[in-house]
Amino acid sequence: MHLSHVLSAAACLVSSALSTTHPSSGGSNHEGPDLNGKYWIYGEGIAASFIPYGASISNLVLKDKNGVPRDIVMGFDKASDYAADKAHPHLGGVPGRYANRIKNSTFEIEGVAYHITANENPTAEHPDGLDTLHGGKDGWDWRDFDVVSHTNNSITFSIVDPDGKEGFPGEVISYITYTVGDMTWDAKMVAIATTKKTPIMLSSHTYWNLDGFANDKTSTVFNHTFHLPYSGQRVAVDNILIPTGDILANAKGSVNDFWSAPKQIGQGFEDPEIHGNCGFNCTGYDNCWLVNRPAAHDWRADGAFVASLSSAWSGIKVDIYSDQDAFQMYSCGGQNGSFPLKAGQGVGRHHDAVSSRNVGDPQTTTTKKGSDRTVPKYGCVVMEVQDWIDGVNHPEWGRLGKQVFGPGGDPYVLQVSHRFTVG
Ligand SMILES: *[C@@H]1O[C@H](CO)[C@@H](O)[C@H](O)[C@H]1NC(C)=O
Ligand SMILES: *[C@@H]1O[C@H](CO)[C@@H](O)[C@H](O)[C@H]1NC(C)=O
Ligand SMILES: *[C@@H]1O[C@H](CO)[C@@H](O)[C@H](O)[C@H]1NC(C)=O
Ligand SMILES: *[C@@H]1O[C@H](CO)[C@@H](O)[C@H](O)[C@H]1NC(C)=O
Ligand SMILES: *[C@@H]1O[C@H](CO)[C@@H](O)[C@H](O)[C@H]1NC(C)=O
């Protein structure tokens, strides 16, 4: 990609956003990828790897309450496996240029209707699908990003999304920076519409299992405790998860109530309301909760997390802080035991990835039990910070200022901070 053009066009806008994440002392070691094609970064008690494909997180390793390193995100052992995977579950990547679903693969900006590529819910009449999921057939998480910078504790990727790609108007240039610190993993995503007004909404589509898929009592996330303190409301959706425009109340004690108190994900499955909760014939969660905060709030303030997930088995807890105003949680009802775990994951398996760059080296793993080498139904949870889904088709929600960007205006910015504790 024409990176010099990217840098000259975008340098002014993004330099301030990027500079805060780069250590001024340099510290750039540019070691490049390991033998599996992964770029590792290191913080205090935490290590993570990323790949250019989709600017995806591939490993996230920290020690559980017994001091055992756990890799708590889904992924493949090799970077080259991601593009080869036909099922493509948007694994740890950045969905773009517009995350989640767009109704009828259509939107309008200033009176002009745009039709983008459909890629979900095919019918005889619409063989490509009835809607667009995660930016279309060749959305950002199907593409190789450029590595702009790689230091010991951060990595920055960039992508140039051309005018007309997947039917979207105008060129978009984006930088994705990941940083790890003292038991933290942060992401900053900046995108600039350089030529035309266009919708932009990004996210991180990470699949979590806080037990590193190694819990010998249960392979599901039903015993993970989830909390959405600001989410008394959610977006109403139809049978194929397209927003209807209505906003629903999450009545206290109902399946979608995670605001009144932290609750185990499995608890909702005891209520018949859980059937059809994630679309037609779908049991579980794949919902977009609104994040309702006071107008003046500091999203970084201690305790002001938008979501929290924990598992008593590993003792690992993640509090998610973000500047975004909605939160999607998916309970992995689509997994069916076909997706393989990484070498260091699973019952009886672990590796010292905090100090080793050779993840997947069979000599660093041990096997006590040969089974449980795949992700079962409800074996993971996806948590996505984003804006109100399909807000581009719902001007009545008042989200256009946060979802439509053009030359001369502010850049799109998403910030998220994952803060871990173990106990
Ligand atoms: C990278 O960061 C880790 C964690 O802060 C530190 O232990 C290690 O010494 C650093 N390595 C280099 C080459 O700076
Ligand atoms: C399981 O899911 C994978 C990926 O979506 C799919 O290719 C496969 O056909 C499914 N298997 C069964 C038995 O449903
Ligand atoms: C749905 O999309 C089709 C094809 O792109 C278009 O012709 C039609 O006008 C759209 N319908 C609505 C209600 O936007
Ligand atoms: C684990 O989850 C199951 C299913 O929701 C529940 O019945 C059980 O009580 C939970 N166990 C613990 C220890 O919380
Ligand atoms: C609904 O789901 C059940 C269980 O997975 C399946 O047997 C049934 O065929 C599905 N019904 C329809 C209409 O898809």
TrEMBL record:
InterPro entries documented for this protein: Aldose_1/G6P_1-epimerase, Gal_mutarotase_sf_dom, Galactose_mutarotase-like, GH-type_carb-bd
Q: What stretches pass through the bilayer?
A: none
Region annotated Disordered, chain positions: 351-373
User: Which superkingdom?
Assistant: Eukaryota
One Gene Ontology molecular-function label? aldose 1-epimerase activity
Q: Keyword annotations for this protein?
A: Carbohydrate metabolism, Isomerase, Signal
Question: For this chain's UniProt record, which GO biological process terms are given?
Answer: galactose catabolic process via UDP-galactose, Leloir pathway; glucose metabolic process
Start-end of Polar residues biased regions: 355-368
Similarity section:
Belongs to the aldose epimerase family.
User: What is the protein named?
Assistant: Galactose mutarotase-like domain-containing protein
Q: Which organism is it from?
A: Parachaetomium inaequale
